[in-house]
């Protein structure tokens, strides 16, 4: 596809999406839910066929030398597909928030003023690797009454095309416009440049992928962007805490999966429990081959752990998103130093405290400046599905419009509505 054709193609997608968005905005809840239930059914019925398409992407990725954590993100396993199907059903079961009016108040003039929740209109989604994002974005777009244009990574093109066909089949079954969810069919990177520069068609862009992609989108976009750059998440083990629970949670937060943005990359340990806690978590990490990049104090304690991979931490390690079996480890004096460290070095994505002190927990919740803040739970829970949002379009570390996992409400806007009985302004 030459440059002119790419421009024409993306503008055609934009016009079709804009037209479809008006139809979606007035679609009844029952019809949108019918499409979601149909999509869940089609995902389950097509699991075997989808894995054949997915295998082509996996084979090409490995042949191209893609790192194994990145190949892992491409997997459309039966479990991943079942989670997608359940997400569609969870969304279908949720109340329809579109058209909801809230905060209606009578004013001295006689008018009543409130706000109505409405769809954003058209969003563009640009993402890498994970093809399940196609379903998450499509299902949220349907439920929220929006239209969307999806541009997945070239490494997942076969999987994304197969999934997009199922989405359009589900839309057709429900009597909705198939243009409500469109996948960019070309892997030409110029399509991204066009998509992020069409404010006449696209209302918001949501990038989901590596830091390089998101930085480029944020720099070049001519429409608003909902984004997060890094997932440098922390788990802080407080004094006092339940040591056994802390070992279990710190293990899960790091090792349940290395590639997601909600995996903990930094482990902070209060000095009062470091001598007891660090050898225990160190043994767990050593058994799983996790490299620990520690401060001098933590390394001195971890030296006794058999088979531990220990490396002195550099200043850069405190800010690093590894997406690998590596974790930074630092002994801190107390909750004050932990909060200060997190607010300085974290990416404001997700941070957790493991503690039995209620006041420490409350301070951590109030003072840590992150999109998701947790007490006695794994950072791996920072996910729209786990938060009960049905699915997520991504995580936002921005402070305006949407923050944290962006689900149904994050894809809507509010407009003021005024009800009167002939009042005029004096």
Figure out the total of helices. Answer: 14
Strand order of the largest sheet: 10-9-11-8-7-12-13
Shape: globular
Low-confidence stretches: none
Helix content: 40-55%
Average of the residue pLDDT scores: 95
Question: Which range does the strand content fall in?
Answer: 15-25%
Number of separate strands: 16
Topology pattern, helix = H, strand = E: HHHHHEEEHEHEHEHEHEHEHEEHEHEEEE
The first-to-last residue Cα distance is 61 Å
Tell me the structural class. alpha/beta
Secondary structure blueprint with pairings:
Blueprint lengths: L2 H23 L3 H17 L1 H17 L4 H7 L3 H16 L7 E6 L5 E8 L2 E6 L4 H12 L3 E5 L5 H17 L7 E3 L6 H6 L8 E5 L2 H10 L12 E5 L5 H13 L8 E7 H17 L3 E4 L1 H7 L6 E4 L13 E7 L2 H11 L4 E5 L3 H10 L4 E4 L19 E2 L7 E2 L6 E8 L7
Parallel strand pairs: 3-4, 3-6, 4-5, 7-8, 7-12, 8-11, 9-10, 9-11, 12-13
Antiparallel strand pairs: 1-2, 2-16, 14-15
